[in-house]
Amino acid sequence: MSLARIAWTVVVMTCALACAISFVAGYSGYGWILIAVGLAAAVNLLPDRGEDPEPGEDSPA
Question: Is pLDDT larger for residue 57 or for residue 10?
Answer without folding.
Answer: 10
